[in-house]
Design brief:
2 copies of one chain form a homodimer.
Chain A lengths: L33 H13 L9 H21 L6 E4 L2 H15 L6 E5 L4 H12 L3 E5 L9 H7 L4 E5 L13 H11 L3 E4 L15 E5 L10 E5 L25 H16 L1 H22 L3 E4 L9 E6 L4 H10 L19 H6 L6 E5 L6 H21 L25 H11 L19 E4 L7 H9 L8 E6 L4 H12 L2 E7 L5 E6 L4
Helix pairs in contact in A: 1-7, 2-7, 3-4, 8-11, 9-11
InterPro entries (chains A, B): Aminotrans_V_dom, PyrdxlP-dep_Trfase, PyrdxlP-dep_Trfase_major, PyrdxlP-dep_Trfase_small, TusA-like, TusA-like_sf
Family (chains A, B): Belongs to the class-V pyridoxal-phosphate-dependent aminotransferase family. NifS/IscS subfamily.
Cofactor (chains A, B): pyridoxal 5'-phosphate
């Protein structure tokens, strides 16, 4: 099919030679940029010595380190003496937060972070709390955008630090950093901006007090992060420290990686505008066509304020791990919306904070140089893969609530279990299944009960979809589940298919009952 | 001149191509081993992805990381699941100490470390103390060897951790790790062995509970360290952590560096026995010939229990920085006995703990492949360089106390200063310059006073050497100094030249008076 104008004509970067399959997980780690590789090799030859030493190898290393610092500072938008290199973006966040919190300990121990920050920010917030501090999560809307009035209201006296990412790593939503910084400035609170996902595209707006980033996100080498601390920001580095990196990060510096990080940051910035436009067109195509090609799928994140290269969508009735595995088998490397540090497939805290579907979540993040052909190929295989996974899970056919009987027998609760008795009782008299005061077994006036306890998502939603047709319109089905993801996915299923989500109540015998009223018509 | 047998016949490794001058500072950082370079490049191509991801790039990265861990664990002498990669040796030490101290917090908060540990160990000990813990320094003898009975006596109840390095980074002295581990085992105290300087040569003896190392010391890349924690060792990692590296070190792992570190560790170990023998012969030559060629110089460290590639000596009447600069100008890169993290030229805590001369300290640490010719060239230029620096500082000519008048006028104290008056008074009647009770200006019964306050070492010792001939044998000269290094260097000067060091006393008007009794004959 013909591709939209502007994409076909866009400049195409060559695919990196070692990417033998389309790699669509740039937000986890980008392949090494050729400039980074070149700079790393040169710096390994010229900058292996200790830059703190006085001999010629040490002085040569020091010159390289100074030059790398200047280049990186220019790209960040700060002074070289405000920037230090750390071993990772996580290390930059951890030491930046610890240093800022300790520096303002006298002001208070209150920490405000957006609820969609990277897990490393949340880990540091939890550590702060364990050490006697307190932290507060600023909410986001359904697109993942920071709720600015709520954020501002959290910046109460005693707030030592606030953290807002420049753009989200799972959804691509770009945060209102300038507005958040203005609110912080008014309240006299320093703002730490985690720019890990966006620094390769552009410098975040000014106004931040601390900024962190991670080189392997823009095609720099692993093993290097950036921490910038504006002059005038109170900062007391976590102990122990030494004389390295202005006393802000201890240990022998990873100089070759710093050089490669700086060189590649400059390089990717030079091509950022063109490449962002090109990838944005490809992402627009994915955003438009994935929901059209794959039924019961929704795109997650802000429609306009977003990173150029990243799109996330969620598919009903699909197991995320199975989807990843099948896409991988078909030659596409994607990620699923969990934290950046694991594929544990617990529901992502980001999707949870947004209140959107976590089921069958797929993050596509295109590395620079991704070809249109690969995106088209992805669009070509995705519908069949989703359908295959759905079929293997006996999911309902797509398109909305099913009124006819399920093609396969619904999963049976074990013989003699309370849920089975309950279901039999209610199946016999759906209209009469009203809650009994003080001792009812059908929660919330449900006309039918689906006991999906002990089953992982998406099974609870699949079973709900199969059984909703068993009750008349206007009546309630209770889904019992002990999978945390059901709390997100059942309401979202209702929203997507037009049923009413009534609410949740603890289920007798454990787990939670999610109550769904079948739509009329 | 003919070199000793066994050295000429020893196998010579080729000098690494990018070492255009003899680099004798391997203990700071070794040039990248060719195997490390090769492995790093391969791992950058194959292992740039996130090893926690499920797609093929992630799985490939995970395989590489697992293989690197197995290789490194084999070289360390532990199980792969006992070993994690950290961003540096310093990070390994800091997280290892913090984790072990926190894991045994209920036992007590007492920490015992040898007084010659690397500064990163001492920094962590200070941080522990700042956080409410306590730490105790175990003494060493004049050769830098741990005083085992003193160490054992410090392992009192409530001791959470002890730290003993495998070998010293400044003197090369190899510590009795097996004996220290046995003492710790008897007292039920875990032992952390910092093996940074020795792991490239051999695995330290077993018995340790935690072991740390740094890849760039053996020719691995910068940006990678090792932390091994034996099963059964109580360990509670410092927060924040994530799911990386068994929850022991957070952040995106530097996988290419880990692969290169492991590969190069295996490579250097394969050639370690031959290369150690070859370098030991070169170091033996330096140890024998430097004191013979350069008067008033002594070799520091244990004569037998030492690393194969490292020798440290100290030269009287020489400024360390000037010596380094002149050696650098002559094409030799060496280091001076301060901490590994700076050339601040404050007296080294190691030399101080040993109680040896810190003046004019030079550490020569030969990288693998150092040629005999380069060592001979070094021996050829060193005497002239030391003599030149001595001459520029108006140091006395070598060979012992001078009885004749100095060739140049001694430095004058400012007109009308108390010291000048004192000197004049004493010069006029040296025999009568006895201390006056309650208000004497000549400290400690000195017959002459040399006021070197405001002058950095080696000037105080140079001025002492010039003036000692001004008093009769058996009489005392007081050297006034506010340079901390004088506390080490004046007694050592006495020991080397046969005078009696009487002691020190606070000087009127600031600083310290060091009292020296001129030898008879």
């Amino acid at each position: 099919m013909p591709a939209p104008r502007g994409v076909l004509t866009a400049r195409r970067s060559p695919r990196l030679p070692f990417l033998d399959v389309p790699y669509f997980d740039a937000a986890s780690a980008a392949p090494l940029h050729p400039v980074a590789r070149q700079a790393l090799l040169a710096a390994l030859d010229e900058g292996w010595a200790d830059p703190a030493r006085l001999h010629r190898e040490g002085r040569r290393a020091r010159l390289l380190l100074d030059a790398a610092r200047e280049t990186a500072a220019e790209a960040v938008g700060c002074r070289p003496d405000e920037l230090v290199f750390t071993p990772s973006g996580t290390a930059a966040v951890h030491s930046g937060m610890a240093g800022a919190l300790a520096g303002r300990r006298r002001v208070g121990r209150r920490l405000v972070v957006s609820s969609v920050e990277h897990s490393c920010v949340l880990h540091a917030a939890e550590a702060h709390e364990e050490a006697g501090g307190e932290f507060h999560l600023a909410p986001v809307d359904r697109t993942g955008l920071l709720d600015l009035p709520a954020f501002r209201s959290l910046l109460r006296p005693g707030t030592a630090l606030a953290c807002v990412q420049s753009a989200n790593h799972e959804t691509g939503t770009v945060q209102p950093v300038a507005e958040a910084a203005a609110a912080c400035r008014e309240e006299g609170v320093p703002l730490l901006v985690d720019a890990a996902q966006s620094l390769g595209w552009e410098a975040p707006p000014g106004g931040w007090s601390l900024l962190t980033a991670s080189a392997h996100k823009w095609g720099g080498p692993p093993g290097i992060g950036l921490l910038a601390v504006r002059k005038g920001t109170r900062f007391s580095p976590a102990r122990p420290v030494d004389e390295r990196e202005s006393g802000r990060f201890p240990g022998f510096p990873n100089l070759p990686a710093a050089v490669a990080a700086a060189a590649s940051l400059r390089a990717v910035r030079q091509e950022a505008a063109d490449e962002a436009a090109r990838l944005r067109a490809l992402v627009d195509r994915l955003r438009a066509r994935v929901p059209a090609l794959v039924p019961d799928t929704e795109v997650v994140g802000h429609p306009g304020l977003r990173l150029p290269h990243l799109v996330t969508f969620s598919c009903l009735y699909v197991d995320g791990e199975a989807l990843l595995t099948e896409l991988d088998r078909a030659g596409f490397s994607v990620s699923s919306g969990s934290s950046c540090t694991s594929d544990t497939l617990v529901p992502s805290h980001v999707l949870k904070a947004m209140g959107v579907l976590s089921e069958g979540n797929v993050r596509v993040s295109l590395p620079r140089g991704t070809s249109e052909e690969d995106v088209e190929r992805f669009l070509g295989v995705l519908p069949g893969i989703v359908a295959g996974v759905r079929s293997s899970l006996s999911a309902p056919v797509a398109g909305g609530p099913r009124e006819q009987a399920p093609p396969q027998a619904p999963p049976q609760a074990p013989e003699g279990s309370p849920a089975q008795e309950e279901a039999q009782e209610q199946e016999g008299s759906p209209e009469g299944a009203v809650p009994r005061e003080g001792g009812g077994r059908a929660p919330g006036g449900a006309a039918a009960v689906v006991d999906s306890r002990g089953k992982r998502c998406p099974i609870p939603v699949i079973e709900l979809a199969r059984r909703i047709g068993d009750v008349p319109p206007g009546r309630v089905v209770a889904v019992l589940s002990d999978d945390e993801a059901a709390r997100l996915d059942v309401p979202e299923w209702c929203r997507m298919l037009g049923h009413e989500y009534v609410g949740e109540t603890p289920a007798e015998g454990g787990g939670t009952a999610y109550l769904v009223r079948r739509a009329h018509g």
